[in-house]
Amino acid sequence: MTTSTLRREQPAFVETFQRLRLGPYLFVLGVAIIDFLVIGPAQFVNGLTIGAIYALVAIGYTMVYGIIELINFAHGDVFMVGAFTSMYVLTNVLGQDGPIKDPPVLAAVLFVDFAITMILLGILGTVIERFAYRPLRHAPRLAPLITAIGVSFILQNTIQILFGPSPVNTPQLISPTARVNVFGLDVGVVNIFTIVVSVSLMIALQLFVSRTRIGRAMRSTAMDREAAQLMGVDINRTIAITFFIGSALAGAAGVVQGLYFGNIQFTLGFQAGLKAFTAAVLGGIGNITGAALGGFIIGFVEVTAGAKGVFVWGQAAVFVVLILTLLFRPAGLLGQQIGERA
Amino acid sequence: MSAVGQAPAASSPGIREQVADLSSRHRSLSVIVGMTIVAAILPLIVLVPPFNSFSGQAVWMDGFTIAGIYVLLALGLNIVVGMSGLLDLGYAAFFAIGAYSYAFAASSFTHVNIPFWPMLLAGAAIAAVFGILLGAPTLRLRGDYLAIVTLGFGEIVPITILNSSKYTEGPNGIGGISAPSLLGTEFPTTGNPWPFYLTMLVMICISMILIYRLQDSRLGRAWAAIREDELAAAANGVNTVVTKLLAFALGASTAGLAGVFIAAKLQTVTPNLFRFDVSFTVLAMVVLGGMGNVWGVAVGAFVVFMIQSVFLKQLNLFFDNAHVPFLQDINFLDYQFLLYGIALVAMMLLRPEGLFPSRRRRRELHTDEDQEFGELGDELGASPE
Alpha helix (H) ranges present in B290-385? Predict the structure, then answer.
């Protein structure tokens, strides 16, 4: 008797639960809470910060994949170029070399740095799309993948030649020692800045994609390119804009990376690209919210591995996450099942 | 060289066609004859004017032996990338697995001494097993996932070797690996380069014959079908997962073979020998040589290796000695990957079938009808696929 009443009551609850699609979010929340308990508040904030950076990069992967079904291998290197552009802008254009005390000046310098880097990187992304990917849109799948690797080589080697192979210091505008008290926790200002900037950029992007005309064009192109074109969407322009936004976000991530870590190297993009891609797959490739969630999970995984004294295995842990996702939930947390399209 | 695939309009078959016809009918024989000619001609390079000044014969032949390893790697990667259209970006991992298998099996580090020849097969088999383990979860999914998973795997294997110093000596690598021996005499590691050189050539020869045989077999046709249209292949009864897995495993086993050889040749293995730049170099070789064409890939690998190991170095020396104001400050070796990158992009845009394409591949990638259709399709927004 009791079991049957229970069964009758359950569907309503399950249905509401499924309609809201809270499962993935609860999963991420669960991971975060467990992680918080395992590694403690200080490391947790660290994980959140690194996760925010990965999330920004992962969004670029997922947007490009969503719209033209290409793994943009060069995206990690675009992020790296963003970090170097920001470094160049800060030191050579704005003449900064360390923390700025005065808040209005700090805000102004940061704004100029973000604006210049994001616009330059957006243009870089569009140029890459125009010359390396657009001519191959109807070629076999392998061709644009190989050009993507070629572009990745070109970006890496150019930066290596320009700035040298060893790590380069970047000015940490926000003093790494500055701390504030949040809910009784002692948190670095730069951590808060990184998280706030990343999350606001993600929210802005989400609004842009869901509310604006161009955002609608992007969604329709991702869904069915030919049909979108028949409805009057300029496909080439839409894809170019997608690349612009994705690369600009990677540029922002590059700025934040420099501010947070204080030194950058030309190999940065390779590692970060792999992790961000894992984040995109974990979240469900093609899904922007998923990429953001995935980024935070990867951040937690990496910081946890570091906190437990197995930092050298952090990379391996991320890779294991990728394989497990592909094995058990290839569609990712928020993605739909994708079949092989011929 | 460029005219290999073009059929001239002349009605009577020329001598070139006769040779091409003969070689396509007797592939194995032509591989053996071709490799014998190569084996005989290459050592003579020390007699040719600009080359004889660079280094002595033994050094040249050692270089050729290492180039042979890259040729072998390119031949193996060609099975995966060129014949089956799967992108493997962590190919060096299997190379490392082969090399470390031999290092564990025959060195003073483990105090085991299994002879070289059975280990060649064992190393290939071990690499193939790893290939299957890695391919099984990923090959069921879309092709692009394989690329990123192999990229990760290629990164993880050296990291694992680096971090488990207890078993692998970490960054120092395993030394004191025994050289191969034949009929009771051990291969000399310095001085006489001939034994390693000839072994390499025989290995390439056998691999090429086997790969040609595979290409013309039922399996080879299934690979080509999957490369061209996976859905259509599956609809026609090709078991795509098993076929792709076989391609992946066979590619990995070739890398394992090359790995065992390099461990025996250098007598020491370190994780740095197998970083991702090896994977990318081999990929560049396959793409430049012409994906899918066995001879083309072999020649491509040899040419790229010679450019990076001889030409760029000599260019440095030349400008240094000539005191050219700007150029002498440039280390051309730094530009290696920039060159690969530009070459990969340019090849894909301008000549996607490679420098020495296979006839079938050229037809796939470059038909007049396709071009017209492509342009039309662009206007209408329809893809010709």
Answer: 294-306, 312-322, 336-350, 359-365, 368-380
Q: In this complex, how many residue pairs, one in chain A and one in chain B, have their CB atoms less than 8 Å apart?
A: 141
Q: What is the C-alpha separation between B124 and B77, in angstroms, rounded?
A: 14
CA dist., res. A133 & res. A148, Å (int): 8
Question: For B52-79, what is the HEC assignment?
Answer: HCCCCHHHHHHHHHHHHHHHHHHHHHHH
Residues 6 or more apart in contact with residue A332 via CB below 8 angstroms: A281, A282, A283, A284, A285, A287, A290, A294, A325
Residue B113: helix, strand or coil by DSSP?
strand
Cβ under 8 Å to B: A residues 165-224: none
Cβ(A293)–Cβ(A25) below 8 Å: yes
Complex ipTM tops 0.85? no
Residue A309 CB neighbours (<10 A): 8
List per-residue pLDDT tens for chain B, 385 residues long: 344 444 444 445 677 777 777 767 777 777 777 777 877 777 776 666 666 666 666 777 788 888 889 999 999 999 988 888 888 888 999 999 999 888 888 877 777 777 878 888 888 999 999 999 888 877 877 667 788 788 888 888 888 888 877 777 777 778 777 777 777 677 776 767 778 888 888 888 888 888 888 888 889 889 988 888 888 888 888 888 899 999 989 999 999 999 999 888 888 888 888 887 888 888 888 888 877 788 888 888 888 888 877 777 777 777 777 766 666 666 777 777 888 888 888 888 887 777 776 666 666 665 544 444 444 444 444 444 3
Asked if B232's CB is within 8 angstroms of A71's CB, the reply is: no
Sort out which chain A residues have CB atoms less than 8 A from B85's CB and list them: 140-142
Q: Do A340 and B231 touch (CB under 8 A)?
A: yes
Q: Which pairing describes strands B181-182 and A185-188: parallel, antiparallel, or unpaired?
A: unpaired
H/E element holding B107?
strand B106-107
Token code pair at residue B331: 């280390």
Quote the CA–CA distance of B84 and B73 in Å, as a whole number.
16
Cross-chain Cβ contact B280/A149 below 8 Å: yes
Q: Give which of B150, B153, B281, B344 to mutate to test A binding, by max A Cβ within 10 Å.
A: B344
CB contact under 8 A, B338 and A230: no
What domains can you pick out in chain B, each with its CATH number?
A: 62-379 (1.10.3470)
Q: What is the CA angle B316-B320-B322, rounded to 5?
A: 120
The CATH number corresponding to A24-328 among 1.10.3210, 3.40.50, 1.20.1440, 1.10.3470 equals 1.10.3470
Q: Is A330 touching B (CB cutoff 8 A)?
A: yes
